Amino acid sequence: MERKVYADHSATTAVRPEVLEAMLPYFTEEYGNPSSIYAIARSNKQAVETAREQVAMAINAKADEIFFTGCGTESDNWALKGIAESYAGKGDHIITTSVEHHAILHTCQYLEKQGKRITYLPVDEDGVVSVEALKNAVDQDTILVSIIMANNEIGTINPIEEIGAFLHEKKILFHVDAVQAVGSLPIDVQAMHIDLLSLSAHKFYGPKGVGALYIRKGVKLRSFIHGGAQERGRRAGTENVAGIVGLGKAIELATSELEARRAQLIPMRDRLIDEVLRRIPYVRLNGARENRLPGHVNFSFQFIEGESLLILLDMAGIYASSGSACTSGSLDPSHVLLAIGLPHEIAHGSLRLTFGRENTMEDVDYILEKLPPIVERLRAMSPLYED
Amino acid sequence: MERKVYADHSATTAVRPEVLEAMLPYFTEEYGNPSSIYAIARSNKQAVETAREQVAMAINAKADEIFFTGCGTESDNWALKGIAESYAGKGDHIITTSVEHHAILHTCQYLEKQGKRITYLPVDEDGVVSVEALKNAVDQDTILVSIIMANNEIGTINPIEEIGAFLHEKKILFHVDAVQAVGSLPIDVQAMHIDLLSLSAHKFYGPKGVGALYIRKGVKLRSFIHGGAQERGRRAGTENVAGIVGLGKAIELATSELEARRAQLIPMRDRLIDEVLRRIPYVRLNGARENRLPGHVNFSFQFIEGESLLILLDMAGIYASSGSACTSGSLDPSHVLLAIGLPHEIAHGSLRLTFGRENTMEDVDYILEKLPPIVERLRAMSPLYED
Amino acid sequence: MYSEKVMDHFMNPRNMGEIEDADGVGTVGNAKCGDIMRIFLKVEDGVIQDVKFKTFGCGAAVATSSMATEMVVGKTVEEALKVTNKAVMEALDGLPPVKVHCSLLAEQAIHAALWDYAQKHNITIEGLKPPVEDIEEIEEEE
Amino acid sequence: MYSEKVMDHFMNPRNMGEIEDADGVGTVGNAKCGDIMRIFLKVEDGVIQDVKFKTFGCGAAVATSSMATEMVVGKTVEEALKVTNKAVMEALDGLPPVKVHCSLLAEQAIHAALWDYAQKHNITIEGLKPPVEDIEEIEEEE
Ligand SMILES: Cc1ncc(COP(=O)(O)O)c(C=O)c1O
Ligand SMILES: Cc1ncc(COP(=O)(O)O)c(C=O)c1O
Ligand code: FES
Ligand code: FES
Predict the structure, then answer these.
(1) Ligand nearest to the CA of C31
(2) Do B8 and A314 touch (CB under 8 A)?
(3) How deeply is A311 buried, as exposed, middle or buried, from its count of CB atoms within 10 A (0-12, 13-18, 19+)?
(4) Is the Cβ pair D1, B233 closer than 8 Å?
(5) Of the candidates B311, B348, B383, which has its C-beta nearest C59's C-beta?
C-alpha cells in the first residue's frame, strides 16, 4: 500500500472529530436563528457566546472583544479598511511588510487606490521584519501598523511583542495577522499590545469559512459588512452557528495542546530540514532555521520548477505546496521569496511542506525516501542543470 | 406531550439530512485546500464547481457567473458597494425601496455617508414597490436599482420581471435580493433581466454562513474581500467547501421541489390567514393576501406588544418572530410595517409565522388553538384595550 | 435571556388589572420603544393599600410592573418613592442590557400615579416631580 | 486539472534529453512565467530525423514539449513549421486556460531550433521568423 502524507497544514487542516461532533447538533437540531427570542434559538445564542469565550481565552482577550467573521481574509479586510476609514481624521498612513499574505497586501493596494499611503517594510533574508525600519517609517499620520505574526510561506516568526511595545508607546494601533500562528505559537494580546488580531478556524483543525477578529475595547472600527444587528451591530449576517461552535472548540483544543503539538512537530521539521540539506545538492532552506513555525519547512531546489515537483510528489502520495495555496492559480513567483532575496528562477522551484497533528516521523522518512529521486529526475529534464 | 411547531422559516431553516450528508466528507476526509494542486484538493475543487453549476441551474445563469460568499448579507454588501465604486465614473445614484432588508438599507446608508445619492422608493399598503415611482426616480446618474424579490417581514412579492424589462431597456444595472425567494419562487435571471442576485443557503435548508452572488457576465464589480485568487480572483478567502457543497445540494433540492413545496405550504398559509382573521378581532394581515411567499404569514394584533406574544407562544411550543429576526435585538418598530402605513403601536404587535417543509396542517391547527387565548390574555393586560 | 424570576412575574403577573375608584392613576409611555404602562393606586392615610397595573409592553415591562407593584404595596407614599427601577431589577435578578429602560416604565408609572394622587388630594409629596409625557434615558452607546 | 494524455506525457516524457551533434538548437523563455525550454534537432535532406528536449517548466510545459517532439519527428522542415501549439494542445486533449501559454513554449522552441539549423546551413525556410528572446501572448482578462 502506498503511503499518503498530507504535508500542507499551512494551507488547510482536516476538521478534528471532536470539533465536528461539537458542530453537528447545530446543523439539524439546534438550528434556530440566534437573534431570535425563542428557546431553541437561545441555546444557539449560548453556543455562540461560549465560542466567543473560548476564543477570548486563547488569546487573553475579553469575550466582548471577539467578533466572528466569514474567514481570515474577511478579518484582515475589515481591520485594514475599517481602521483606514474610522481613523481617517487622524491620518492616512498605514505600515505593513512586504511579506504579508495577499489578504493584507491586496487590501493595502486597494487602500492605496483610495488615496491612503502605505509603507511596505522590507525583511531580512530570513523574512523577519526590521524593527528599526519600522521605527523610521512611523510618522505623525501613521494610524495603523499591520504585521504578520508567522509567515504562511516561509514560516518565519516576527518580533510581535517588541513591535507591540513600541507602538503602544507611540499610541499607534497594531493589527496582527495571526492566521498561521494560532495553535502553533502562544498569543497574548495584552502582553503583546495587540489592538486587532485576525484568525481563521481551518488552520487549526476547525472548519473552513469562519474566522474571527479581535478588536480591543475602545478601538473605533466601522462595520465592514452592514446589515442586521448581529455581533452587537458590528458584523451583520445570520451567524454561522455550527462554524462558530467549531472554531471555539478547535481553538480551545489547539491552545490546550500547544506545547504537546510543538514537541511533536519541531523534531519532524528539524529532521526534514537537516536531512534534505544533507542529501540533496543545490537546495536552500527558505525562512529562519530556528525562529519558525513548529511544523513548517520551505525549500528551494535550484534548476527545477515547483509545479512539476508538486505533481510528482502528489503521484508519490505526498501533498505539499509551492508558495501559498491561494496563489497557486497564479504564475508569478512568490512575493515572499522575492522579498527575502531569491532570484526569480530559484523562487520558482520552491516547495512548502507543513506538518500537523496527524503526521509522524515515519512521514518524514517517507518524504526523505521519495523526494531526492524526484528532484534528480526533474533536474535531468532541466536545460539549466549541467551535472 | 406538548407539540413543537417551528414556524420561523424566514429567519432560518434546519439543514436537511441529505444536505448534511453531502457536506460531511468535506470536513474530515476531503479537506484539502481547493486552490492546491494535489489529488485530494482536486476533488474539493470539483465539488465546489459542481455546486456552482447547481446554483447556476437554479436561477438560469451560467456557472462562471456564480460567486460564493460568506452569507446573504455579504452578497448584498458586495453588490451595492462594488457597483457604487466600479461605476462611479458613470453616476452616483442608486435606487432601492423603503422595505429592503437591513443588509441593503444599512449598506445604502453607509453609501450615503460616502456621498452617494440613494432614492428609497415607497411601497403600497401591501408592500409592493411602485413601478411608476421607479420610472420617475431614474435619472442620468442612476447606476443601479436594488429591489427585494420577496419581503422577509411581510412576504410580499415584487414585480421583478416588469422592473427588469424596464431597466434593461434603460441600460441600468439591476440587483435583486432574492434571499427569501430562492426555493419559494421560480427565478430566471435571463427572463427577469437581473444583473446581480443575492442568495443565502440557510433560508432553503442549507447551512448558515454561506451565500452566493450572481454577477452577469460583463458587469464590472470590484472585489469586496481582497486577498488570494479564489473565486477567479473576485472573492478571496479559502473556500468554505463543506458549506458550498451544502448550498449547492440544498438549492438543487429546493428548486426541484419548488412546486411540491408550494402545493404544501400555500393551503397552510391560507388556512391560517383565514381562520385567524375570522376568530380574532382587531387583527390585520400585513402584506398582500395572495401575492406573497407560499408559507409566509404576518399579522398585527392591536393592543398587544410583539415580544410578550412571542414569549407566550414560545411557552406553548410555537416558534415565531416579530419582524425580522436580526432586528429583534433592536426596539424600533419594523421599518417595513411603518412603510406600509401601520401606526407605531400596531407595528409593535406584529407576529410573523413562516412555514416550511417539515410543517403540517396539524401545526396550523395547533397554532389556531393556542394563539387566540394568548392574544386574549395579553389584551386583558393592556391599558390600550377596552373590551 | 430573562432570569427565572422575570419569567415567573411575566407568566404570573401580580396585581394585574384596574382599580375602579383609584386614588391615583398614572400612565407613562416609553419614548425608546413606544410601550405604555398604567398604574392604579388606592391610598389610605398615606399608605398604599392596593395597587394594580396594565402594561402594553415587552416581557421585561410586564415583569417589572408586577414586581414593582409588589414592592410598593403596604408602603407609605414616601417609601414608595424610593423604590427605584434599580431595586426592581435587582429583585428580579437582573435584566438584559437592552431591557434596562423597560424597568423605568414601572418606576415612572408609579411616580405618575402618586403625582395624580397628590394633585387630586391637594398635597405635596417631597421629592416628587411632575410626570413627563415620554420617559427617556441616556444609554451608553458602544 | 490535467487530462490523462497530459499526465501520461508528463510522467513518461518522449524524446527527453540532448543531441550531442545537433543540426539546430533552440532555447526560449516564457516571459509570463519565467520557464525555459530547449529543443535539439537532427535534420537530414530537409527531414527531421531526431528531436530531443529539455524543459524547466510546469507539467503542461513538459507534456507539450514531449508531444510536440513526437509530432515533428519524421516531418519535413516545412511540415514541422505547421505544428502549432493549438495542434499540440488538441493532441493532448486540451489544457486548462491558465496553461495555454505553456504550449507556446514548445512551438517557439521548435521554431528557434529550426532557425538555428537554417542559419548554420545557410538556407531560408519560408515563413520562419527569427526567434524572440521571450515569448508573450495576449490573454483575455476577466
Ligand atoms: C431579504 C433578506 N436579505 C438578506 C438577508 C441576509 O442573509 P444572511 O443573514 O444570510 O446574511 C436576509 C436574512 O437574514 C433576508 O431575509
Ligand atoms: C497569514 C494568512 N493570513 C490570512 C489568510 C487567509 O485566511 P482564509 O483563507 O481563511 O481567509 C491565510 C490563509 O489562507 C494566511 O495564511
Ligand atoms: S421594550 Fe418597551 S418596555 Fe421593554
Ligand atoms: S507555467 Fe511556465 S511553462 Fe507552464
Answers:
(1) 3
(2) no
(3) buried
(4) no
(5) B311
Residue B201 to residue B182: CA distance in whole angstroms: 9
The whole-number mean pLDDT for each consecutive block of 10 residues of chain B, a chain of 387 residues, reads 88 96 93 74 90 98 98 98 97 98 97 97 97 97 98 97 98 98 98 98 98 97 93 93 98 98 98 98 96 97 90 93 63 86 85 96 98 96 83
pLDDT tens digits, one per residue of A302-338: 998 888 999 999 999 999 998 655 555 556 778 999 9
Predicted confidence at residue B348, as pLDDT, reads 81
- Is the C-beta atom of D28 inside 6 A of ligand 4? no
Pocket, ligand 1, Cβ cutoff 6 A: A 237-238; B 71-73, 76, 101, 103, 148, 152, 177, 179-180, 200, 202, 211, 326
| Tally of CB atoms within 10 A around B309 | 25
Predicted pLDDT at B47:
95
State pTM to two decimals: 0.93
Q: Which of D7, D16, D31, D33 is labelled catalytic?
A: D33
- Rounded to the nearest angstrom, the minimum Cα separation between B159 and chain A is 24
> How many whole angstroms separate alpha carbon B31 and alpha carbon A356?
13
Q: How far is CA B213 from CA A24, A241, B196, in A?
A: 27, 21, 7
Three-class secondary structure of residue A68 per DSSP:
strand
In CATH, the number for domain D4-123 is: 3.90.1010.10
ipTM of the complex: 0.90
Q: What is the mean pLDDT of residues A161-166?
A: 98
Question: For chain D, what are the domain ranges?
Answer: 4-123
pLDDT-derived band of residue C141, with 50, 70 and 90 as boundaries?
Answer: very low
Residue D7 has pLDDT above 90, yes or no: yes
Amino acid (1-letter code) at residue A294: P
Distance B252 CA to ligand 1 centre (A): 20
Q: Residue B214 and residue A121: Cα distance in Å, rounded?
A: 38
In chain C, residues with a C-beta closer than 8 Å to the C-beta of B313 are: none
Cβ(D29) – ligand 4 distance below 6 Å: no
- CA-CA-CA-CA torsion for C49, C54, C55, C56, nearest 10 degrees? -170
For B328-331, the CB contacts below 8 A with 24+ separation are B328/A35, B328/A36, B328/A37, B329/A35, B329/A229, B329/A233, B329/C98, B330/A229, B331/C32, B331/C33, B331/C98, B331/C101
Is there a contact between D31 and D67 (Cβ–Cβ < 8 Å)? Answer: no
Most B CBs within 10 Å: which of A326, A336, A353, as the mutation test of the B interface? A326
